[in-house]
Design a protein that fits this description.
Layout: H1 2-18, H2 30-37, H3 46-60, H4 66-70, H5 75-79, H6 87-112, H7 122-138, H8 147-166, H9 170-186
Helix pairs in contact: 1-6, 1-7, 3-6, 3-9, 6-7, 6-8, 8-9
């Protein structure tokens, strides 16, 4: 469990705060982020954008977090890519993506220890989770609100499908359909 929580946290921190996901510019404040992600193909990917905005709106209302907005070591690095960059907003995107990276790795760890897979040693399980965590972190060179959430939802759907194949139940099929619909609101990947 420690690997499932610590590895994604550390790798996401490295990607977001030791490097800058700079494949895209002008997406590091709520206004510029929404301006970009509410157009083109992105306008149909609503769930991740909604989650990031909800977390940011809650965080921005907490007085102690206003200090993050006013003076941050990372502010200059972000404003080079977006003149309106907001370190708190950037941190909220990082937080949402880190949360779902951790959820993905914990779910993967559970799957690897479940009856649905062949028995694996703890070291092999940990290595698989570490590699998955690194893969997820590497994909964050593009600043998006939906990729990491998509990884989690795809894995969750796979786990539910394995459970359904193992023991078909209507409730599991309903959960699979709900997960796919939620996934489709996030990104077209689950379709």
């Amino acid at each position: 469990l420690l690997v499932g929580l610590a590895a994604p946290f550390i790798f996401q921190y490295i990607v977001y705060y030791r490097f800058t996901p700079n494949y895209m510019a002008n997406v590091f404040s709520q206004a510029s982020f929404n301006a970009w992600y509410e157009h083109s193909i992105f306008k149909y990917r609503v769930l991740g954008r909604w989650l990031v905005n909800a977390v940011y709106n809650k965080a921005a209302a907490i007085p102690i977090l206003q200090q993050v907005k006013l003076g941050s070591f990372y502010h200059a690095r972000l404003t080079a890519l977006d003149a309106t960059a907001d370190p708190l907003f950037y941190g909220c995107v990082c937080g949402v993506n880190t949360f779902f990276a951790m959820c993905t790795c914990v779910l993967l760890l559970w799957l690897l220890q479940s009856r649905f897979t062949v028995p694996l040693s703890k070291s092999v399980q940990n290595m698989m989770v570490l590699c998955t965590s690194m893969f997820i972190a590497i994909t964050q060179f593009v600043f998006t609100p939906y990729d990491v959430l998509a990884f989690f939802l795809v894995l969750l759907t796979a786990v539910l499908m394995l459970a359904y194949v193992s023991k078909p139940r209507v409730g599991l099929m309903i959960l699979i359909v709900i997960t796919i619909v939620i996934g489709a609101m996030n990104r077209e990947t689950p379709l």
